[in-house]
UniProtKB/TrEMBL annotation:
<keyword id="KW-0285">Flavoprotein</keyword>
<dbReference type="Pfam" id="PF14759">
    <property type="entry name" value="Reductase_C"/>
</dbReference>
<dbReference type="Pfam" id="PF07992">
    <property type="entry name" value="Pyr_redox_2"/>
</dbReference>
<feature type="domain" description="FAD/NAD(P)-binding">
    <location>
        <begin position="6"/>
        <end position="309"/>
    </location>
</feature>
<keyword id="KW-0274">FAD</keyword>
<dbReference type="InterPro" id="IPR036188">
    <property type="entry name" value="FAD/NAD-bd_sf"/>
</dbReference>
<protein>
    <submittedName>
        <fullName>NAD(P)/FAD-dependent oxidoreductase</fullName>
    </submittedName>
</protein>
<dbReference type="InterPro" id="IPR050446">
    <property type="entry name" value="FAD-oxidoreductase/Apoptosis"/>
</dbReference>
<dbReference type="InterPro" id="IPR016156">
    <property type="entry name" value="FAD/NAD-linked_Rdtase_dimer_sf"/>
</dbReference>
<feature type="domain" description="Reductase C-terminal">
    <location>
        <begin position="328"/>
        <end position="411"/>
    </location>
</feature>
<dbReference type="InterPro" id="IPR028202">
    <property type="entry name" value="Reductase_C"/>
</dbReference>
<keyword id="KW-0560">Oxidoreductase</keyword>
<dbReference type="InterPro" id="IPR023753">
    <property type="entry name" value="FAD/NAD-binding_dom"/>
</dbReference>
Length: 424
């Protein structure tokens, strides 16, 4: 009797992989196991709609309660897989996993969709009450409750999560300060023009932004945080701290199996690990650059989790599909909606479209006159046009992209773009 597929991790990628297997006609058993006691749910809204009180856990669920049973997916909640081994004599990819409670889960095929954990800040006082991280529903519930009575909120980290929480916190009324160790905000995701815009925009909304500022420790009284100490000696009063300094991919199980890991579980374009019988998808992985195929990148996004899980499912059923859609990301910080398509790393030119002072503009990034990516702030039409162009392998010439009176969609694939492409 077939043991079927074991998917470890009740994440976006894990749910999508199970759904995709069924959509591909796979009828063998599927076990989806997650360590949280509740069914899988969306995480991105936790720092936005949920924190602002506009969403609850029920509305964030990926699927209706009866979906999993109706689809023949055995959903196991509240079980953390602590060990996994592959069979030495059985079919390739088969084995057994063990949970913390001692439960054994045999499988014929294994998929790792274990996600990532919040990176911790290892400084004196990090154990104090009122110092929060945001990765799951319980974290969000705790943070939302604390915000209701907070007076001085310090956000450590000027990335997507940090700035989203800062926006929600400021709307609730308390004083908010963002402390970022780098010299600009969201440095891993956007270019300098967009970073500077967000610094100014958040300051206009009453959020203090401190750049090039490291945190060296926390002070407290009676077990609760009272201040944040910075590397320049500054002491910031605080009764609530949110630490959002990135994530660490969960690689423990992959390492048990001897799979290659390098700041994540290494996979190829077909979501295969270094053992081709085992697949992995989502935030736990590093993969070939989706646009160039050169080097490895880790993409933390819903879009990547879904796309990579679909590829992994195709691989498991023996129909590998290496299609790599254009990466896209978003971050809604109050009324500032940032949408990104493509990857701007390595650009040698950029075009600013519109006026950042109007809080509606976009930046297009190029390398050798070839369109790489866009950062769009409150300009969804620009974002969609570039995403479409990148998806078609087309370009939009930089000499025409800067005119905000001309819709970008009208510039995709025009004769000038074709000539530029040929010259490149």
């Amino acid at each position: 009797m077939s043991e079927g597929t074991l998917i470890v991790g009740g994440s976006q990628a894990g749910v999508q992989l199970a759904v995709s297997l069924r959509q591909l006609g796979d009828t063998s058993p599927i076990v989806l196991v997650g360590e949280e006691t509740r069914p899988p749910y969306q995480r991105p809204p936790l720092s936005k709609e949920f924190l602002a009180g506009r969403a609850d856990l029920e509305s964030l669920a990926f699927r209706a309660p009866g979906f999993y049973a109706d689809s023949g997916i055995d959903l196991v909640c509240g079980e953390r897989v602590t060990g996994v081994s592959l069979s030495a004599s059985g079919p390739a990819g088969s084995g057994v996993a063990t949970t913390a409670s001692g439960r054994e889960l045999p499988f014929d095929r294994l998929a790792l969709t274990v996600g990532a954990d919040a990176r911790r800040l290892p400084v004196p006082g990090a154990h104090l009450g009122g110092i929060c991280y945001l990765r799951d529903h319980d974290d969000a519930v705790d943070l939302r409750a604390r915000l209701a009575t907070a007076t001085n909120v310090i956000v450590v980290g000027g990335g997507f999560i940090g700035l989203e929480v800062a926006s929600a916190a400021r709307a609730a009324g308390p004083s908010v300060t963002v402390v970022e160790a780098a010299d600009r905000l969201m440095a891993r995701a956007v270019g300098p023009v967009v970073s500077e815009f967000y610094r100014r925009a958040h300051r206009r909304r009453g959020i203090d932004v401190r750049l090039s500022a490291g945190v060296t420790g926390f002070e407290g009284e009676r077990g609760q945080v009272t201040a944040v100490e910075l590397s320049d000696g500054t002491r910031l009063p605080a009764d609530l701290v949110l630490v959002g300094i990135g994530v660490l991919p969960r690689t423990e199980l992959a390492e048990q199996l001897g799979l290659a890991c390098d700041q994540g579980i290494v996979v190829d374009a077909h979501a295969r690990t270094s053992d081709p019988a085992v697949v992995a998808a989502g935030d736990c992985t590093v993969q070939p650059h989706p646009m160039t195929g050169q080097g490895r990148v880790r993409l933390e996004s819903v879009q990547n989790a879904v796309a990579q899980a679909q590829v992994a499912a195709s691989t498991l059923v023996g129909r590998p599909n290496g299609a790599t859609p254009v990466p896209w990301f978003w971050s809604y910080q109050g009324d500032l909606r940032l949408q990104i398509a493509g990857l701007s790393a390595g650009h040698d030119d950029q075009v600013v479209r519109g006026d950042p002072d109007d809080e509606s503009f976009s930046v297009l990034y190029y390398r050798r006159n070839r369109l790489l990516a866009i950062d769009a702030v409150n300009r969804p039409a620009d974002y969609m046009a570039v995403r479409k162009a990148l998806g078609r392998g087309a370009t939009i010439t930089p000499d025409r992209a800067g005119d905000p009176a001309v819709p970008l969609k009208d510039l995709i694939g025009d004769p000038a773009a074709t000539a530029q492409q040929a010259e490149a």
